[in-house]
């Protein structure tokens, strides 16, 4: 069984500030499938995602508490570091990202997590424009795999500084770490 989280940035309340919209698909993403949970994270003037709508018990089976809000705040903040996703206007490359993993019983963390990127011009959500795969290593952290397709080089510029280097991989690893901390998926 797979599970997925989609993240996009949109001004949902027309106040000129973008919100982070985090949609969870407990049985994996599929076209035209409604998410199981949608959380909207509102940025304060300092850019901190502290106000949240739709928070569920995402980090455990202990009711909705401040830890759940924190999990979503962190997820929103990390996704906002993807400049091609969160910037407004011409700097925006991607309409949304989709983070997915296979869920196996008795596994603390998924061995592999993929992050799919969809260009703003892409209307075929079964065809991502970029795919980054991260693998769990022996120390329990996630590391970006060099792609097997194309020229075999990691080419994603997550932080928008014009190159693809360790900082970009680090942002993706943090996003994936935040994703796997969302424990209350399909039971
Ligand atoms: Ca807004
Ligand atoms: Ca909780
Ligand atoms: Ca970069
Ligand atoms: Ca750089």
How does this model look, in words?
With 187 residues, the chain is of the alpha+beta class. The protein has one domain. Helices cover 18% and strands 29% of the residues. The protein has 3 helices and 8 strands; from the N terminus they run E-E-E-E-H-H-E-E-E-E-H. It has helices at residues 66-80, 83-86, 166-180; strands at 2-10, 19-25, 37-43, 49-53, 94-102, 112-119, 130-136, 142-144. An 8-stranded antiparallel β-sheet has the order 4-3-2-1-5-6-7-8. Strand 3 (37-43) and strand 4 form a beta hairpin. The radius of gyration is 16 Å and the shape is globular. The N and C termini lie close together (10 Å). The model has no long low-confidence stretch (mean pLDDT 92). The structure holds calcium ion (4 copies).
Order of helices and strands: EEEEHHEEEEH
Alpha-beta classification: alpha+beta
The overall number of domains is 1
In DSSP terms (H or I, runs of 4 or more residues), the helix count works out at 3
The dominant shape is globular
The hetero compounds bound to this protein are:
calcium ion
Radius of gyration: 16 Å
Count the beta strands: 8
Measured by DSSP, the beta-strand proportion falls in 25-35%
What distance separates the N and C termini?
A: 10 Å
Task: Provide the residue-averaged pLDDT.
Answer: 92
Major β-sheet profile: 8 strands, antiparallel
User: Within the largest sheet, what's the order of strands?
Assistant: 4-3-2-1-5-6-7-8
Low-confidence stretches: none
Helix content: 10-25%
């Amino acid at each position: 069984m797979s599970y997925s989280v989609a993240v996009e940035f949109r001004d949902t309340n027309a106040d000129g500030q973008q919100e982070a919209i985090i949609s969870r698909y407990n049985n994996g993403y599929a076209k035209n499938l409604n998410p199981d949970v949608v959380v909207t994270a509102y940025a304060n003037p300092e850019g901190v995602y502290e106000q949240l709508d739709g928070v569920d018990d995402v980090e455990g089976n202990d009711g909705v508490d401040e830890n759940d809000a924190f999990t979503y705040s962190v997820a929103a903040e990390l996704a906002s570091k993807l400049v091609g996703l969160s910037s407004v206007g011409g700097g925006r490359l991607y309409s949304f990202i989709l983070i997915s993993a296979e869920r196996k019983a008795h596994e603390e963390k998924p061995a592999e997590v993929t992050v799919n990127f969809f260009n703003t011009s892409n209307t075929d959500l079964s065809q991502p424009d970029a795919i980054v795969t991260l693998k769990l290593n022996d120390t329990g952290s996630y590391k970006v795999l060099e792609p097997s397709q194309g020229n075999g080089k990691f080419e994603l510029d997550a932080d928008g500084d014009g190159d693809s280097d360790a900082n970009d991989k680090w942002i993706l690893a943090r996003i994936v770490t935040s994703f796997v901390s969302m424990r209350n998926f399909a039971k």
